[in-house]
Amino acid sequence: MFAEADEIHISVAFTYDIPKAEKLVKEWSRVASVRLGGPAYGLSGGDFIPGMYLKPGYVITSRGCPKRCWFCSVWRREKGIKELPIVNGWNVLDDNLLACSERHIRAVFAMLQKQNQRAGFTGGLEARLLQDWHVDLLCLLKPKPVMFFAYDTPDDYEPLVVAARKIFDAGFTKASHAVRCYVLIGYPKDSFGQAESRLRQVLALGITPMAMLYRDQQGEVSDEWRAFQRQWARPAIIHSPR
Question: What per-residue confidence (pLDDT) applies to 242?
Answer without folding.
Answer: 60
